[in-house]
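hey
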């Protein structure tokens, strides 16, 4: 490692916890010099980021590569959305905003509600009626957001949200807000910091396509700063029933059990295809059956309870030929607890027995 890079890690720029002896303070303080902030930018943080990069032994064996899982469900509101929200809300506060708004399939609303509450701002949320997982809706509501269910899908809700700033004093915090992308690129920085360089392959679910755009930006910026020697091939995965980029046209009625990627007209469509082609990667689709198989495999074989949408990255990896020994990172974008209904639907209800020792011993069949 060269000296400049050592200096970066040693706290001059990034303030990493191992050498500074300080606790993790969130992505803005950790990566301040690579983010659009200055000394007067207020930092609205829940100490997001710093998530585990977990080696997946059984998955590695299955695919004949060295596979790591980036556990984004470990973020404060249970998904990677917190990385972008800390910056979007901090910048909105810096600009004097009193209110923020977003359309959401769930996790964006949970994150926006939490960070807006932290900043003392009003948060308004539009969600597609009947298509939002319980754990996410619960968070938006308990953090005090103004939540409206729209009789339409995510794409329709986002279209309305994008027009609101022309009519009301409010900042949009969807990933059409460039600060969201800038905050989310910190995930790539952390992966390179942990591995010592960029991986060979980066697998990621694609919904509105902001995250694949952000990771690619992060890898490229780290290489440009001399903090990585290379960039990975970016492999993005859409659900088969919601695969506008792969199919090459807007999907009017996207359908998938992976509600976080149930999007028919991605806001970051072009940058996502650029990330795939510039990196020598691709965007492909995986079926709901493959997603659910990967979801169960992750829980049973790797002890990681992720969202169905997150499992799309692993479902995609499982159907991709991988060079032997390649270093692979799969981003697991959100926590399984965000969607308890789906989890319960995938297992059998526990049997009930009499409260006697013999009945229990019998039933457990140990
Ligand atoms: C938002 C989200 C996605 C999709 O990310 P995009 O940036 O919209 O492509 C995937 N998984 C989870 C859990 C999410 O919350």
């Amino acid at each position: 490692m060269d000296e400049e890079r050592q200096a970066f890690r040693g706290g001059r720029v990034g303030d990493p916890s191992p050498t500074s002896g300080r606790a993790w303070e969130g992505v803005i303080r950790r990566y301040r010099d690579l983010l659009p902030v200055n000394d007067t930018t207020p930092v609205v943080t829940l100490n997001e980021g710093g998530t585990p990069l977990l080696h997946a032994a059984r998955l590695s064996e299955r695919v004949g590569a060295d596979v790591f899982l980036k556990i984004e469900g470990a973020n404060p509101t249970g998904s990677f959305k917190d990385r972008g929200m800390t910056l979007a809300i901090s910048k909105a506060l810096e600009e004097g905003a009193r209110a923020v708004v977003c359309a959401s399939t769930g996790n964006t609303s949970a994150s926006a509600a939490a960070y807006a509450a932290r900043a003392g701002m009003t948060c308004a949320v539009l969600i597609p009626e009947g298509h939002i997982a319980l754990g996410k809706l619960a968070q938006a509501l308990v953090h005090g957001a103004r939540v409206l269910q729209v009789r339409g899908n995510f794409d329709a809700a986002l279209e309305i949200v994008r027009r609101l700033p022309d009519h009301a004093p409010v900042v949009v915090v969807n990933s059409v807000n460039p600060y969201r992308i800038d905050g989310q690129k910190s995930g790539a920085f952390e992966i390179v910091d942990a591995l010592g360089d960029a991986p060979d392959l980066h697998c990621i679910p694609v919904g509105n396509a902001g995250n694949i755009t952000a990771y690619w930006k992060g890898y490229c910026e780290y290489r440009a700063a001399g903090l990585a020697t290379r960039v990975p091939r970016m492999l993005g995965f859409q659900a088969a029933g919601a695969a506008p980029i792969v199919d090459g046209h807007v999907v009017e009625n996207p359908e998938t059990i992976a509600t976080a990627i149930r999007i028919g007209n991605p806001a970051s469509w072009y940058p996502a295809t650029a990330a795939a082609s510039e990196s020598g990667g691709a965007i492909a689709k995986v079926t709901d059956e493959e997603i659910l198989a990967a979801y169960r495999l992750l829980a049973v074989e790797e002890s990681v309870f992720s969202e169905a949408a997150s499992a799309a990255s692993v479902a995609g990896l499982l159907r991709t030929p991988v060079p032997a020994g390649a270093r692979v990172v799969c981003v697991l974008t959100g926590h399984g607890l965000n969607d308890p209904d789906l989890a319960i639907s995938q297992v059998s209800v526990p049997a009930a027995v009499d409260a006697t020792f013999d009945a229990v011993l019998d039933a457990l069949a140990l």
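Confidence is low (pLDDT under 50) at residues 1-19. The pocket of pyridoxal-5'-phosphate is lined by residues 79, 81, 107, 175, 205-211, 260-261, 307, 309-310, 333-334 (CB under 6 Å).
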